[in-house]
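User: Before I run my own analysis I want an independent prediction to cross-check against. Here's the chain; please return only the structure tokens and, at the end, one sentence I can use as a sanity check.
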Amino acid sequence: MSDSVKIKTILVVDDSAVMRQMISTVLEAAGYRVLLADDGGTALEQVRKTAVDLVLTDWIMMPMDGGELTRQLRLLTDYSEVPILVLSTVSSDESKAEAKTAGANGWIAKPIKPATLLGVVGSLINRV
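Assistant: Structure tokens:
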């Protein structure tokens, strides 16, 4: 890989260790650098230390859920335009509308097929 090609960094936020590991494995195999967080608060700490190119977040987490995380990220100057993708078992129109209002760029329902995940991630991360 040439020095001019920057490896894209993705932050995966999910309260399920199994889901974080599965997503991380898929993304790392595709050549992405992956950071992990188990809730929204931890994710905010991560992005203040390390710049990321995309955030993948679960919707339902405690104590800070994906909606609040998305709203908080959008308040940070460096993250006003960074793509945010919600991954969730919830797929109601209300939740999707709330995510869009909060600033999310997309929504994928769990369970996630690796090819679908990589396709959506690729389209979001390469638009920047």
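Sanity check: The chain has five helices and five strands.
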